[in-house]
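#struct-help
A.M.: can someone run this one for me? Single chain, 518 residues.
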Amino acid sequence: VPCIDIDFTDPRVLRGDFTSAERAFLMGRETGRTLFKQTSAEALLTGKLFNLPAGPVGAAFGANIRRDEINDTPGEATLAGNVANFTTSGITAGRTVSKEIFGEVEVPLLEGVPMIERLTLSGAARYTHVEATRRDGVEDKFSDTTWKVGADWAVTDWLRFRGTWGTSFRAPALFELFLQDQTGFLGQPATVPSIRTRARLAAGVISQRIFDNCAADGIGPNFAGGIGPAAIASGGGIGQLKPETSTAKTVSVILTPDLSGALWGGLKTRLAVDYFDIEVQDEIALLGAGNILTGCYDSENFAAEPFCGLFTRTAAGPDAQSVASVTDRYVNISRQRNRGVDLSLAIDQDLGNLGALTFRAQMTWQIEDKVALFPGTEIDDNGKIGNPKWVGDFNLGWTKDAWTLFYGLDVTGAASNEEDLLRAQGGDPCRTSSFRPGGRFCPDVSVPATFYHSLSLSRDVADRFRITLGVANLFDTPPPRVSTVVTATPVVIGQAPAFGTQYDYLGRRFFLGVRGKI
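D.P.: on it. C-alpha cells below:
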C-alpha cells in the first residue's frame, strides 16, 4: 500500500476514526504457512537367543532412519519487517536426518529358589547420529551413545523390587536449530526492573538488592523509563547449541498382596513406591526478556552475572539508559536435577450384584528440584508456589451394569516463597512502604493446600457409545491468593491469585460428553 501522511495529533485519528485510505495503509491481513515433513524407515529383529535354566534369553536389534523438514514462511508484511511494533521474522527452513542403531537383551538369571521367585536383568544401548542443514547450507552434527540397565527381582508372588539406571540424548529440535532471526517488541516496564527504583523501593515493590544493583549500573533512582519499546531478538542456535543429555535412576517396590478373603471377596490391591533421580545437562531453553533483566538486577553476584551480558542500553538521546535490545536466543542451560518419590495405589472390589468399586491414588513427594542456568548459579524451586513438594490425585468409581459414578479429588500441596523473600530483604519478612499505615508492608507469599473436587455420571449405550454428564471444580474453589504490588499511580498494594499451572482459574463448570466407536 502506498505511503500516506497521517497526522497523529488529530483528535479524529487518536480516537481511531480513520479514513478508508488511512485504514488501508495502517491495517491489513496476511497469512503465514508452516509445513512439516517427516519420512522414516525402521527395521527390527526380535527373538530368543538361547535358553537358560530360568528361561529363554530374549533380544531385539534394529535400526532406523528419519528425515524431518520444516519450512515456516511468515506473511508478506512480517517477512518485509513492515509490521509496526510487532514481531518481524524471516523464513525458518531446514532439515535433520537422524540415523540410529539399537539393541536390547533380557536375561532371566534365577527362578524358583529361596527368596527369589524370579530375577531378571535387562540391558539396552542405542547409537544416534543427527545431521542438521539450514536452508542456506549451514550444517551441524550431533551424535551420542545412550544405554540403560535394569533388574527385576520378584521375592514372592506379592513382593517385587525393580531398578533402572540409564542415559538419554536429545538433539535440538527443528525450531530450536533453524528459527530465523526474529524481532519482537516489549514496553520498557515489561522488561526493566530499574524504573523509578526509589519510589518502588519505598512502596515495597522491589528489594534493596535490586535497588543497589540498578544504582551500580548507573541507573538513577528516579529514572522513569524510555518512550520506545525494547527490541527482543531471538533465533535458532545451529552451530551453537549442544544436545541435551540426561541420567535417570529409579528404584521401586511393588506390593500385590492376596486379600481375596476380605470383605465380599474379590479384593485386589497393588501398591507401588518409586524413587526417581533425574539429572539433565545442557537443557535447551528460551529464557525470556523479562527473566533476563530480572536475573541480572536481582543477582547476588551482580558484577559477574551472565544475564547482564544479554542486553544493551541506549547511550544517549531522549531514551538514554533505556533498554535498547535483549538477546533471547535458544541456549543451553547448565543443568537441572529432580528427585522424588511416587506412590500409586490401586484397589478393586467386586460387590457382586451391587457392582464394583475402584479406588486409585497417585501421589508425588518432590525432594529436590534445582536448576543451574549457568555454571555457579543455582535456583532451588522445590516447595515454591507453582512447584509444591507434594501433590495427590484420588479417584473413586462405582460401576453397575451400564452406569459408572465417578468422584475425583486433586490436591496441590502448600507452598511458600518466603525463603526468597527473606534472602532478598536481608532476613526481614517485611518491607518499608510509604503507602502503608505505619510504613511497613509484610507480603503474604505462602499458600495453603488446595483441593479440587469433581463428579460425573456415565452410561454406556449399546456397547458403542458412552454419555457422560459431570461437574468440575464442584465447590467452585478459587486459586489461593498472594500479595501483589501494581506500579500504577498511586501504587496499589493488594492480593492476586497465585500463578501456578496446578490451580484452576475457571471455577465450577458443567460438561456433557459423548464418545462413540465404529
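A.M.: thanks! The longest strand covers residues 92-113.
D.P.: also worth noting: Residues 208-216 form the longest helix (9 residues).
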